[in-house]
Write a structure and sequence with these properties.
The structure holds three protein chains of three kinds. By secondary structure, chain A is mainly alpha-helical. Chain A is 71% helix and 3% strand. Chain A has one domain (2-284): Orthogonal Bundle (ABC transporter involved in vitamin B12 uptake, BtuC), CATH 1.10.3470. Chain A is built from twelve helices and two strands; from the N terminus they run H-H-H-H-H-E-E-H-H-H-H-H-H-H. In chain A, helix 2 (8-37) packs antiparallel against helix 9 (191-215), helix 2 (8-37) crosses helix 10 and helix 11 (244-264) packs across helix 12. Chain C has helices at residues 40-47, 70-75, 93-102, 108-118, 120-124, 135-147, 165-182, 193-199, 217-222, 224-231, and strands at residues 2-11, 14-24, 29-33, 55-60, 63-64, 78-81, 153-157, 185-190, 202-207, 210-216. In chain C, strand 7 (153-157), helix 7 (165-182) and strand 8 form a beta-alpha-beta unit. Classes of the chains: A mainly alpha, B mainly alpha, C alpha/beta. At the A-B interface, helix 5, helix 10 and helix 12 of A face helix 6, helix 13, helix 15 and helix 16 of B.
Chain lengths: 298, 357, 236
């Protein structure tokens, strides 16, 4: 058992899960937005980064870790809601290229803005749990209190989101607005408000992912979320962009794949792992592995 | 062979060819009088205009969007750079054809799994590609020079050119002008090809696919093949542009092709106007002047150019421009002057539906 | 009471409704009849605020509905069962019903049991996804979902579409009972003029967007010319 827990195989499993949950969170946040507004938010990573940066300025003033997390999430949600109202709402009904282009532009603005205000160097939050690896009879197990926390926090957020959608009135309205906006309006549901709330939720989930990155060993820099966004997108796309469970599973899969490529080949080749998985997934089922709908949305 | 005929045969209206030719010659004349710095900025703009044109063709004519053209640029640049590094005496034209082929092939590799994808999927997939290209290139250090990149000899100005314009001395001026002229000629040739492509049968079926793929399929257009072709052409143009840009810089380095380059390309395309030759020209011109433009904004607002804000001003300006243009003038800044637009529209050939009947 | 006054709707250059005026009294069923493309669905969609008219007014009692947002019209007590029923297939029967009750100030448990009593088959399938329901069951669900909010007005768009004749007959009886028991104002859009006229109190006939007849159902039903030219009913 000792040998097994500290083996390089388990090292890679733990490492893969630790990155995988971050990808899963981003993927989940993308699915929430996609379901409600059919926009793939290219600025999702950058929005989360900015929210976390703002949270971090407060931690510099001596507030605790948890307050920083809460501030980041709240700022993220506000930013998400504002983005939907100001940038996305004028574009409903326009060609699907328009919101893509606008969000790509927003991504550029946010990253440049963050670098302008806080420089492009790495910033991090002092983590609330130890980053020192556990030991098992003198052998290193590549799992620290922080990594356990990171995985549990991500799982907790996912369960929270799932419960919200599944069991609450708000969740029912969110689902209905996404599935059938016109019918929902005929039933008196304020669909416009639901879209804004969907964006807020999504940005909040994204902010949690960025907070985890910022608390980790390597910290967060303005363009840091680009790669994470790409991995999160691939995870969501593997699941078909519509399935929250697919997105979470896809995130874990890509985290593990990258970790193994990184360990057995080269860190530079790791980004290919996601692409290969996506291509394979699309060849098996073009509409996504977890998607129920067969018809193409035009 | 069919393709070669489509590209080279003059199917387009004469006026368009004349316009491309006239603009090329005019720009060549302008390079004589520009200072060396402006000449080299112009050269960079010409290279980028080729890339924008390829992207514009993909987005404007086939309705697909790509955030991967910075990746295709990198492929073309590395192909040209690696070749030129080992075979310095190869004529430029050969190196550029190599970049064209390499770019096109990488486009094919991406297109095959991607043609079934639409809008956001495609954008995400191509983004993933361009995010992976430069780390991948760095992985093969022995060939690509890793993080440092490949350094090349600068393009040599032929003696006759120096003598023609600058007598026996002033070799810096002559070299800047020569490289600018080379870039402009290459761009002119690529624009000529694209002008033909726009009005070829392939171009028309492309637009049909963009506007209504179901109808296009019923009319016998092969959807996957048409979309793949659009991608390959776009990537080939990006390959040539990327290679040209790197040859002008005399180096191929990973940091020339960051993810933000895709944003820049998109911005330039949207600003100029999607799917038009003139749009790509305008995009290229804006790129040439972007450094000046940013410096100007910095001095107007009193921002220290070496401060954080000053250093990131370009990202902020380009991002804001992209958002504002897309929301308020999605046809590009050309569309803002409606008399010009009317002139442009009057020149347009018959609409697709009329032609296909 | 619904009062439609001088209502005109354009889709681009196409005039979908031309100066349509009629009243739909409280506690009565008003059938809106006409061929395909006569403007029947457009009329209901305009009342619900989904389509903006070029001109004209729609009053629900004293309130002008024109210019109001669809969700606010629904909250005023206008239940709209759209063409094709608008059942959300990915949700369960009960979730669809809960959606109907959400925006109205009604007791959910009471409303549910009331609807399950009225449509027992829905109670049996409450946890099933709506994609498994038959056409008749979907229509019942759509009606129940509108009724659970205790509406004052019910707009029904082609409820008989795709249903077997016996199911249609049953449905029409239910609509008539509802109208009488709940004092509802019902606007019933139908292509199936025969079965609609059997239960309606009043009838409005539309042709190419204009009202060609407006009166009590019996007299419309008795008018051979109307039936021949506009309603596609073979005169025996």
């Amino acid at each position: 058992m000792t040998a097994f827990l500290s083996s390089s195989f388990m090292h890679n499993i733990f490492g893969g899960l630790a990155t995988g949950v971050i990808y899963s969170l981003v993927a989940l946040s993308l699915v929430i937005i996609w379901q409600s507004t059919h926009v793939l938010n290219f600025a999702q990573g950058a929005m989360a980064m900015l929210a976390t940066y703002i949270g971090m300025t407060e931690i510099d003033r001596g507030i605790g870790y948890w307050w920083c997390v809460i501030i980041s999430v709240v700022v993220g949600m506000a930013l998400g809601g504002l983005t939907e109202r100001v940038l996305i709402r004028p574009l409903y009904g326009k060609p699907e290229i328009n919101p893509i282009v606008v969000m790509v532009g927003f991504l550029g603005v946010l990253e440049a803005l963050a670098a302008a205000i806080w420089t492009s160097t790495t910033r991090n939050i002092t983590e609330p749990f130890s980053q020192i690896y556990y030991q098992d009879h003198g052998h290193l197990v590549f799992l620290s209190a922080f990594i356990v926390f990171q995985i549990l926090l991500a799982i907790g957020i996912m369960l929270l989101v799932a419960a919200l959608f599944r069991f609450t009135k708000l969740g029912l309205q969110l689902r209905a607005s996404a599935l059938a906006p016109e019918v929902s309006r005929l039933l008196g549901i304020r669909v416009g408000r639901m879209l804004t709330i969907g964006w807020m939720l999504s940005a909040g989930v994204g902010a949690v992912a960025a907070v985890i990155v910022a608390s980790g060993n390597f910290g967060l820099f303005p363009t840091d979320m680009d790669g994470i966004f790409v991995a999160g997108f691939i995870a969501a796309a593997v699941g078909g962009l519509e399935s929250p469970i697919g997105a979470v599973a896809g995130g874990l899969l890509i985290g593990l794949a990258e970790q193994f490529i990184l360990a057995y080949w080269s860190p530079n080749v790791a980004p290919l792992g996601g692409i290969i998985i996506l291509v394979l997934a699309l060849m098996i089922r073009p509409q996504g592995l977890f998607s129920k709908s067969v018809s193409r949305r035009v | 062979m069919n393709w070669w005929r489509t590209l080279s045969r003059q199917e387009t209206t004469n006026s368009r060819v004349v316009a491309v030719l006239a603009l090329t010659i005019l720009t060549l004349l302008v390079t004589i009088f520009l200072p060396p710095v402006a000449d080299s900025e112009l050269a960079g703009g010409a290279a980028i205009a080729i890339v924008i044109l390829g992207l514009s063709w993909l987005t404007g004519w086939s309705g697909q969007i790509s955030l991967g053209n910075s990746g295709f640029m990198a492929v073309g640049a590395y192909a040209a750079g690696i070749w030129a590094h080992h075979h310095a005496s190869t004529p430029l034209i050969f190196t550029l054809v190599l970049a064209l082929v390499a770019g096109g092939l990488s486009g094919l590799v991406i297109a095959i799994p991607s043609t079934r994808l639409r809008g956001p999927y495609l954008a995400g997939m191509t983004l993933a590609f361009s995010a992976a290209v430069t780390p991948l290139a760095q992985n093969f250090t022995s060939v690509t020079g890793g993080e440092g990149g490949i350094f090349l000899n600068s393009l040599v100005t032929p003696k006759w050119f120096e003598h023609l314009f600058h007598g026996a001395n002033a070799s810096i001026n002559a070299n800047a002008q020569w490289t600018a002229d080379l870039a402009v000629v290459v761009a002119g040739v690529m624009f000529f090809f694209m002008a033909n492509l726009f009005h070829s049968r392939a171009g028309r079926s492309m637009r049909l696919v963009r506007d209504n793929d179901v109808a296009a399929e019923l009319m016998g257009v092969h959807l996957a093949r048409t979309r793949t072709m659009a991608f390959v052409v776009s990537a080939a143009f990006a390959g040539v542009g990327g290679a040209l840009y790197s040859l002008l810089e005399a180096s191929v380095r990973p940091e020339t092709f960051p993810l933000t380059l895709s944003i820049t390309l998109l911005t330039l395309m949207v600003l100029g106007g999607i799917g038009t030759l003139s749009g790509a020209v305008i995009g290229g011109i804006i790129f040439s002047f972007s450094a000046n433009l940013v410096a100007h904004v910095n001095s107007l607002t009193g921002v220290n150019p070496t401060s954080n804000l000053g250093a990131n001003m370009q990202g902020i300006i380009f991002g804001v421009l992209l958002i504002v243009t897309m929301i308020f003038a999605p046809r590009g800044i050309v569309s803002l002057s409606s008399p010009l637009r009317r002139l442009w529209r009057a020149r347009r050939p018959l609409s697709v539906t009329q032609e296909v009947q | 009471m619904i009062k439609v006054d001088d209502l005109s709707v354009n889709y681009g250059a196409v005039r979908a409704l031309r100066e349509v005026s009629f009243d739909a009294p409280t506690g009565q069923i008003t059938a809106v009849l006409g061929a395909n493309g006569a403007g029947k669905t457009t009329l209901l969609r305009t009342i619900s605020g989904l389509v903006k008219p070029r001109n004209g007014d729609v009053h629900l009692d004293e309130t002008n509905l024109i210019g109001m947002a669809t969700e606010n019209i629904a909250r005023l007590g206008v239940g709209h069962v759209p063409e094709g029923r608008g059942v959300i297939e990915e949700l369960t029967v009960e979730e669809n019903l809960r959606l109907g009750a959400l925006s109205a100030k009604v007791n959910l448990a009471e409303g549910l049991s009331e609807q399950y009593e009225r449509f027992p088959v829905l109670g049996e399938r409450r946890r099933r996804h709506c994609s498994t329901l038959s056409g008749g069951e979907r229509q019942m669900l759509a009606m129940a979902r509108a009724l659970i909010a205790r509406p004052r007005v019910l707009l029904l768009d082609e409820p008989s579409l795709g249903l077997a004749p016996q199911v249609t007959a049953q449905l029409m009886r239910t609509i008539r009972e509802l109208c009488e028991n709940e004092d509802l104002t019902v606007l019933l859009v139908e292509q199936n003029a025969k079965s609609a006229l059997r239960i309606a109190h009043r009838a409005v006939v539309l042709h190419l967007g204009s009202v060609v007849a407006n009166g009590d159902a019996q007299s419309v039903a008795a008018d051979d010319d109307l039936r021949r030219y506009y309603l596609g009913v073979v005169v025996s």
